[in-house]
TrEMBL record, chain A:
Belongs to the ABC transporter superfamily. Pfam families: ABC_tran (PF00005). Keywords: ATP-binding, Cell membrane, Membrane, Nucleotide-binding, Transport. InterPro entries: AAA+_ATPase (IPR003593), ABC_transporter-like_ATP-bd (IPR003439), P-loop_NTPase (IPR027417). The lineage of its organism: Bacteria, Pseudomonadati, Pseudomonadota, Betaproteobacteria, Burkholderiales. This is ABC transporter ATP-binding protein. It comes from Comamonas squillarum. One of its GO terms (molecular function) is ATP binding. Residues 2-232 form the ABC transporter domain. The keyword Glycoprotein does not apply. Signal peptide: none annotated.
Length: 328, 455
């Protein structure tokens, strides 16, 4: 859905992005993380076409953003970290303007205004001037403006900054809803615990280079063994070790295993299987139970975003290697 | 309907304001009737026409510019740039919507002026003056909006200094427009007129041609400036076309061939200064320009090309045939115009180069202010100090043309004096070194492998 090739961005005396290349698949939610000044906002602005790179190209939904920015904007929405609203307009007028400026007809725009207001719990505020709204409500209006034309890609720069816990929680719910609708999201934030709730991928940037990019459901770093490409790793917690491990795991790849919590006899196993094969997941559990396994837990293995981010900070910066390894 | 136009209308034409404007105008008309008992219609006629000019040109220009500045101040510019509206749609939405309240008042005054003109038997003249005023004001809006867009740095909000510059500008416009509108009436009434490219035209026709051409050029400039701000890739063909058309328009008023060439060159030199002073994000633009040239990305090279070198090259292109025509080389006598014109162009290049050096600094100080200071030192202070020694042209080469001591001392000296040419060459060489140094300073150290300016 998003393709970035050899992106170089210079500011006077400083290179903000150093030949960044990446691909983001449709329907994913990518957490864009990195320290301050790493190049997160610059990358987002280049993807939107608001910033002109020194060299390189970006494509969104197959459209070259540098060559046809206005056409590309029809399939993307963007929330800037320092966004503004038209203070004298009402919420409805703001949303209506955003919809029509994205090429929707007046009737279609009006219908979308009501749909988005309902989705963002803003229906009661439609007639209010935006200057009278709270910070969380303003944030929702700004997101509403970004999604009013039902873009395929939504790029959000620090969407949760300055919000109270309740507003942040509702934001997480909203992002999950948008993903369920098929939207591709890229969310830049410093609040990793919240990103962890709804992000499926991590894109870590440091000093203008990608340090980590891939799905969060891989067990990278668990015993030094990671998931293979196109492989799903399941995490299994057992009350006691398997009596016949070869038979119980026949047909599956044992990725890693280790003892459970200290003082308990439990064991944790990571088992690899073909991704998107639901039958294999069910069959593995049945096979384990049939061989006497005392299953305490069975779930998709997932490294927390915090862990992945820490690993990316320690990893050497080699964008080509990362790109080749994680995006075959 | 254009959503930007509709949004501007909803901001400008609130019900209270719609009622307020005719109420104030009506009170002004009553005042005229009360004060001037003998010929109130004559004064109402003149007053209405002046108000059309003031509202359209002054208030209208201010609100048209606000339609751009407010986007920066309210941080909504990114949202507009992210919309799917094309540059032309966005441009006319702001052009007509931003000053819509001023146009509303101007149209009310137009109606009053037409009624009075009809009553006084001066309908034709009134229509002509009003058309000229409205077209001229529209052209002014376009030019000012295009200039603002070209000079706009999206990362910097409109500062109070910008507002003060606007206030001064509007004050000057106020003076200019009122005298123009009042004077236009008498001009149109006379037998005046002139030759334009050999065609003898009446003053009314001439003014109409100029106003219409200005509007067309203004619209072209506004469209291109908006394209640039909306990240639509643009090459500077429209700027070159606009420069050429503007020159053809004005040069047509000059009778002789030599005068035409010189006027064209001087106009282009002025436009070069204007474009250089307006340019924003200078460092990024020049860095991208040199990078794309170095990597053979010629499309990007032209897209990143600043505008002032285009105008300077065009001025040079105008000079070259004239130079050949006059058969004037730097070693012939000083009565020839060629060397002087050539020196003027080098002077423009030097000044723009100084401005560029200061623009490439990582400093918050105004590059324009620093440039003016350096030019003042080079062109006034140092020549004054060394005038008695005959070294003034070394610092300000154009003084070579006015120093009689030099021509008497050097019988076979070049027209401006060898000192002037040497001085200009030294200054350009120093400038070139300074530019390379500044370009090295803005090039990231990490770009060592692929960049000629990397340290």
């Amino acid at each position: 859905m998003i393709e970035v090739q050899d992106l170089i961005v210079d500011y006077p005396g400083h290179r903000a992005l150093r030949g960044v290349s990446l691909q983001i698949e449709a329907g994913t939610v990518t957490a864009l993380v990195g320290p301050n000044g790493a190049g997160k906002s610059t990358l987002l602005r280049c993807i939107t076409g608001l910033e002109a790179p020194l060299s390189g190209s970006t494509r969104v939904a197959g459209i070259d953003v540098q060559q046809a920015p206005r056409r590309a904007h029809q399939c993307m929405g963007y929330l800037s970290d320092f966004f503004g609203l038209y203070e004298t307009l009402s919420v409805a007028q703001c949303l209506q303007y955003a919809a029509e400026s994205q090429g929707l007809s007046r009737q279609a725009a009006t219908a979308r205004v009501h749909a988005v207001a309902e989705q963002l719990a803003l229906t009661a505020k439609l007639g209010h001037a935006t200057r009278n709204l709270s910070r969380g409500q303003r944030q929702r209006v700004a997101i509403g403006q970004a999604i009013i034309h039902e873009p395929q890609v939504l790029l959000l720069d620090e969407p949760a900054s300055g919000l109270d816990p309740e507003a942040r929680s509702s934001l997480s719910t909203l992002f999950r809803q948008l993903q369920a609708q098929g939207m591709t999201l890229v969310v830049s934030s410093h609040i990793l615990s919240e990103l962890d709730e709804y992000c499926s991928h991590i894109l870590s940037i440091r000093e203008g280079r990608i340090t980590s990019h891939g799905p969060l459901n891989a067990v990278a770093g668990a015993g030094g063994i990671g998931a293979l490409p196109s492989e799903l790793v399941m995490q299994l917690e057992l009350a006691a070790p398997l009596a016949q491990p070869e038979l119980a795991l026949a047909g599956y790849r044992l990725v890693d295993m280790r003892a459970g919590r200290e003082g308990s006899a439990s064991h944790i196993l990571w088992i690899g299987m073909p991704a998107h094969d639901t039958a294999a997941r069910v069959q593995l559990l049945q096979q384990l139970v049939a061989h006497g396994a005392q299953v305490l837990g069975y779930q998709e293995a997932r490294t927390s975003l915090q862990e992945r981010y820490q690993q990316s900070l320690e990893a050497p910066v080699d964008p080509q290697a990362l790109f080749a390894k994680e995006w075959p | 309907m254009n959503p930007e136009f509709r949004r501007q209308l909803s901001l400008e034409l609130s019900p209270a304001r719609v009622v307020l404007m005719p109420a104030i105008l009506l009170m002004l008309a009553i005042c005229v009737f009360v004060i001037e008992g003998k010929q109130p219609l004559v004064y109402l006629h003149k007053g209405a026409m002046t108000l059309v000019g003031l509202l359209a040109a002054c208030v209208g220009t201010f609100t048209a510019l606000s339609s751009i500045n407010d986007e920066l101040n309210e941080r909504t510019w990114d949202q507009q740039r992210m919309s799917a509206m094309g540059p032309w749609r966005m441009a006319w939405g702001k052009l007509l919507g931003g000053p819509s309240y001023a146009w509303y008042g101007a149209l009310l005054c137009t109606a009053a002026a037409l009624l009075c003109g009809f009553w006084l038997g001066e309908l034709a003249e009134t229509v002509l003056v009003l058309v000229l005023t409205i077209v001229g004001a529209c052209a002014l809006h376009c030019a000012m909006m295009a200039s603002r867009l070209y000079s706009m740095d999206p990362n910097k909000p409109a500062t109070s200094r910008n507002v003060w510059v606007l206030v001064v500008l509007v004050f000057l416009l106020l003076q200019l427009v009122s005298s123009l509108v009042v004077g236009l009436d008498s001009l149109l009434g006379g037998d005046g007129g002139g030759a334009w490219w050999g065609l003898h035209l009446g003053s009314g026709a001439l003014l109409l041609i100029f106003a219409a051409a200005s509007l067309l050029l203004g619209l072209l400039a506004l469209w291109r400036a908006m394209s640039m701000q909306l990240s639509v890739p643009t090459t500077p063909w429209a700027w070159a076309l606009g420069n050429a058309a503007g020159c053809l328009l004005l040069v047509g008023l000059v009778p002789s061939g030599t005068g035409r060439a010189l006027t064209g060159m001087l106009l282009l030199a002025l436009v070069t200064y204007y474009a250089a002073a307006l340019e924003s994000q200078v460092a990024q633009r020049w860095r991208a320009l040199l990078y794309s040239a170095q990597h053979g990305q010629w499309r990007r090279f032209w897209q990143n090309m600043p505008l002032w070198p285009i105008s300077w090259c065009m001025a040079f292109a105008v000079l070259l045939p004239a130079y050949l025509l006059w058969n004037a080389d730097p070693l012939s006598n000083r009565s020839q115009l060629g060397p002087l014109a050539f020196m003027v162009l080098l002077h423009v290049l030097r000044d723009c180069g100084i401005y560029l050096v200061f623009s490439l600094r990582k400093s918050s100080r105004s590059p324009l202010g620093m440039t003016l200071l350096v030019v003042f030192v080079l062109s006034a202070l140092l020549p004054a100090m060394f005038w008695s020694l005959g070294l003034a042209p070394l610092f300000e080469p154009l003084f070579g043309a006015f120093d009689p001591r030099l021509s008497s001392n050097f019988q076979h000296a070049p027209a401006l004096g060898w000192l002037a040419w040497s001085g200009m060459l030294v200054q350009l060489a120093v400038l070139a070194v300074a530019l390379v140094w500044r370009l090295k300073a803005i090039t990231p150290r990490s770009a060592a492998k692929d960049d000629i300016f990397a340290l």
